[in-house]
């Protein structure tokens, strides 16, 4: 194949809660009088994170969680309630506090390898795009992080009204980019939300597995973004 376009997922791929989801979760709870360790939060995260699709079904939303502020709050407070329940805490106000924390742009940072990788890939002649399930405020946050301008197109579910794992969001991305899907690569952190629908849309997927969660993955896999450019050169 001849790669022309490299699409990136956002959460877990180019950015994440800072200093980390477990630490920010534990800090937020501690400020409200609930003591827990980052390790305890990490254990719950490992248990629940692979099952976000099932949690979507359990939340019984009228439509996807990023498609309206109301749906976002309902899904994430439901999810944080599940997290808290695993930690032995039943407090609706705490779930809402966590939602406010993780809905603030100041709670996120780019991974250290993002800007150097984007610069290197662009310098090598590839085009860059974004396909992300995220609330609409991602667009402004990426501009604040000084990377928003490099993604053309930037397909954000909260702005487009389509969410992964619907392959239609990938079809929309290649249509906006004006490229053949067979000349596109998508890199993301979820087999269910990134890899499978990308394949359904004719796009070659690459799994970024920063925490070695999928060592036996059947997909092309990198542990850090700086491994991506050599992989693209081999395609």
Please state the second-level CATH architecture of the largest domain: 3-Layer(aba) Sandwich
Structural class: alpha/beta
What's the SSE pattern? EEHHHHHEHEHEHHEHEEH
Overall number of domains: 2
Low-confidence stretches: none
Bin the helical content: 40-55%
Strand order of the largest sheet: 5-4-1-6-7-8
Overview of the structural elements:
- The protein is an alpha/beta fold and 235 residues long.
- It folds into two domains: 5-15 and 109-234, HAD superfamily/HAD-like (Rossmann fold); 17-107, DNA polymerase, domain 1 (Orthogonal Bundle).
- 46% of the residues lie in helices and 14% in strands.
- It is built from eleven helices and eight strands.
- The protein has helices at 21-31, 38-48, 52-59, 69-86, 92-102, 114-123, 138-144, 157-160, 168-177, 191-200, 228-234; strands at residues 5-8, 15-17, 108-110, 127-132, 154-156, 184-188, 204-208, 220-222.
- The strands form two sheets. The protein has a six-stranded parallel β-sheet with strand order 5-4-1-6-7-8, with helices on both faces. Strands 2-3 form a two-stranded antiparallel sheet.
- β6 (184-188), α10 (191-200) and β7 (204-208) form a beta-alpha-beta unit.
- The radius of gyration is 18 Å and the shape is globular.
- The termini are close together.
Would you spell out the secondary-structure blueprint of this structure?
Layout (H helix, E strand, L loop, with lengths): L4 E4 L6 E3 L3 H11 L6 H11 L3 H8 L9 H18 L5 H11 L5 E3 L3 H10 L3 E6 L5 H7 L9 E3 H4 L7 H10 L6 E5 L2 H10 L3 E5 L11 E3 L5 H7 L1
Parallel strand pairs: 1-4, 1-6, 4-5, 6-7, 7-8
Antiparallel strand pairs: 2-3
Helix pairs in contact: 1-2, 1-5, 4-5
């Amino acid at each position: 194949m001849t790669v022309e376009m490299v699409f990136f997922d956002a959460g877990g791929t180019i950015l994440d809660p800072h200093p980390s989801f477990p630490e920010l979760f534990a800090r937020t709870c501690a400020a409200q009088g609930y003591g827990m360790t980052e390790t305890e939060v990490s254990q719950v995260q490992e248990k629940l994170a692979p099952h976000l699709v099932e949690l979507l079904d359990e939340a019984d939303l009228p439509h996807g969680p990023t498609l309206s502020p109301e749906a976002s709050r309902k899904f994430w407070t439901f999810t944080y309630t599940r997290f808290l329940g695993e930690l032995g805490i039943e407090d609706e106000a705490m779930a809402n506090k966590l939602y406010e924390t993780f809905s603030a742009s100041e709670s996120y940072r780019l991974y250290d390898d993002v800007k150097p990788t984007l610069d290197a890939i662009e310098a090598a002649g590839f085009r860059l795009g974004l396909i992300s399930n995220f609330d609409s405020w991602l667009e402004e946050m990426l501009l604040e992080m000084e990377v928003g301008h490099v993604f053309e197109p930037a397909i954000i579910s909260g702005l487009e009204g389509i969410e992964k794992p619907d392959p239609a969001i990938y079809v929309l991305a290649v249509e906006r980019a004006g490229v053949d899907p067979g000349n596109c690569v998508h890199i993301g952190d979820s087999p269910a939300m990134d890899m499978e629908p990308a394949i359904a849309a004719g796009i070659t997927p690459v799994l970024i597995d920063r925490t070695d969660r999928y060592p036996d993955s059947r997909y092309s896999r990198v542990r850090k973004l700086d491994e991506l450019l050599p992989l693209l050169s081999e395609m």
